[in-house]
């Protein structure tokens, strides 16, 4: 199979017109800098609303660690979601996949094989469900929204069936210790997130697979004519998303020392929102792993800010919804402006 993707732009950006400088890196840097600014604003708001807490250096350090731990599992899932969206898809089933993988890995039969058996089971379940999603979309020609919506319902139903609608307690000390172990002063969960983000960045920006992902999301027909097996590549993208969900299931199980069918509720919305505000184009063909990570940190900080101010979850969800709408509107405006510029 001949793959002529070397000339495709990285990170899914529209190829610049001949004679125009490629400003992709500058745009990504400015976007990430803007997200850092948002984080600073959120910290200022927290300091203004709860000066009694932010005046305590020890509490601030512990709070930063808490935010990073809260961001770890959803951050891993967001990496997989970013790949799917860049490739022109969407995955509404990530929360349900986490629940199914978590429940399956904490059954008594699975726990009898120890920590390795639990981790292996969670990863295999995640990848298997991701492959089913990919096959239904690529070869069954189902719209990604419909296929993953059906999987969301089915996976949660299967998780409830397996668990008997009960919370399954993890009795494995090695799994439970993942959330409490620290390495070089940072929680092990944070290091897992760092490794996944680093691997995702390399895969997207330094490999043929990443260039093909951008090509498939930007123009599937052009990618097919360039020699890319679009159907197989789409299946692999959903498998990556499932793999991230399986790892996320282990991380959440460690934090709660248990798993249930209702775990990771609305994770799909958080992952999609984080990817979008991080610069991933909802229509596909463009996105950044680093930007998605900043998006996760923004939402985790917002959640923490609402918690310390005793504000309701309903208000938090309304704010998140507003952020998503604003991010999509900004994306559309920037994309139209860039398209008009390149036509000149």
* Poorly predicted residue ranges: 1-21
Could you tell me the radius of gyration in angstroms?
A: 20 Å
From the 3D structure, determine the CATH topology: ABC transporter involved in vitamin B12 uptake, BtuC
CATH class, please? Mainly Alpha
Averaged pLDDT: 85
In helices, the fraction of residues equals over 70%
Q: Overall 3D geometry?
A: globular
- The domain tally reads 1
Order of neighbouring strands in the sheet with most strands: 1-4
Judged by helices, strands and strand pairing, the structural class is mainly alpha
Major sheet details: 2 strands, antiparallel
User: DSSP strand (E) fraction?
Assistant: under 5%
CATH architecture: Orthogonal Bundle
Order of helices and strands: HHHHHHHEHEEHHHHEHHH
Tally the beta strands. Answer: 4
Termini distance? 36 Å
